[in-house]
């Protein structure tokens, strides 16, 4: 597996030890925080994901544009947006209804709150 890290392409080796896949990622923080397996039971594209993603993207772009006109430019990074999104997402998970909403003229329906706030909602 190859990975692009800080301007260079690195190879990440996954090997098996005693029937268990071991992550040999060169970045220690990634190894400690991100699991190498996926939980397919966690929904990825939820109402919360779209609302938080679009809202934080628009606010971050507006703030960076506003502060970019200053003589001493101020950049607001995406990490600060992710830090702010976490408690807002947990609040949305606690307060939104789990009632199914049908899309008119289709068979599609979705829930505003499909379950607890998870790592896929924040990413």
Q: How would you sum up this structure in a few lines?
A:
With 123 residues, the protein is an alpha+beta fold.
Overview of the structural elements:
The protein is of the alpha+beta class and 123 residues long. It has 4 helices and 6 strands. The protein has a two-stranded antiparallel ribbon. A hairpin with a 6-residue loop joins β5 and β6 (109-111). The radius of gyration is 19 Å and the shape is flat. The chain starts with a strand and ends with a helix. The model is unreliable at 4-9 (pLDDT under 50). Belongs to the oligopeptide OPT transporter (TC 2.A.67.1) family. Keywords: Membrane, Peptide transport, Protein transport, Transmembrane, Transmembrane helix, Transport. It is found in: Membrane. GO terms for molecular function: oligopeptide transmembrane transporter activity. Its main location: membrane.
> What gross morphology would you assign?
flat
Strands ordered across the widest β-sheet: 1-2
Mean pLDDT: 79
The secondary-structure element order is EEEEHHHEEH
What is the first-to-last residue Cα distance?
21 Å
Secondary structure tally: strands: 6
What summary fits the major beta sheet? 2 strands, antiparallel
**Count of DSSP-assigned helices:** 4
Computed structural class: alpha+beta
